[in-house]
Amino acid sequence: MDRFGLEGSNETLDALPPIVAEQPPVDAQEFEAAFGESLARTLDLDTWEPGENLAVLYERLEHEVEEAVMQENRIRERIRREVFPRLRHRSEARASTRPPYLT
């Protein structure tokens, strides 16, 4: 079988129906809240920074990555502190109520 599951079939990738999402993955308000600007502005090439400002752009990128790593660390610690103990407790509770044929 080929990697698209079409072996022995007369279908080609061009003949497959297009994938149509029933809802957009993210609506306009969610996009703007996440990125601080509308999707239309993001895609408007006239609002993009020219390449001459690469040093400023790299500095901004470095700052944003640093903030993301700090947020990731805070979230990871909270998950370890709050979620893992609950999962452990739940797992232990289920283990004590297993039917005899599963032990």
Comma- or semicolon-separated keywords:
single chain, 103 residues, mainly alpha, 54% helix
Order of helices and strands: HHH
Distance between the termini: 41 Å
Total of helices: 3
Structural class assignment:
mainly alpha
Number of strands: 0
Summed over residues and divided by their number, the pLDDT gives a mean of 80
**How many discrete structural domains?**
1
Largest sheet: none
* Helix percent band: 40-55%
Strand content: under 5%
Radius of gyration: 25 Å
Low-pLDDT sequence parts: none
Shape: flat
Secondary structure blueprint with pairings:
Blueprint: H1 28-35, H2 39-43, H3 54-96
Could you characterize what this model shows?
The protein has 103 residues and is mainly α. It is flat. It has one domain. The protein has helices spanning 28-35, 39-43, 54-96. The mean pLDDT is 80. The two termini are 41 Å apart. The chain is built from three helices and no strands. The longest helix has 43 residues, at 54-96.
Q: How would you summarize what this structure contains?
A:
The chain has helices at residues 28-35, 39-43, 54-96. It is an all-alpha fold and 103 residues long.
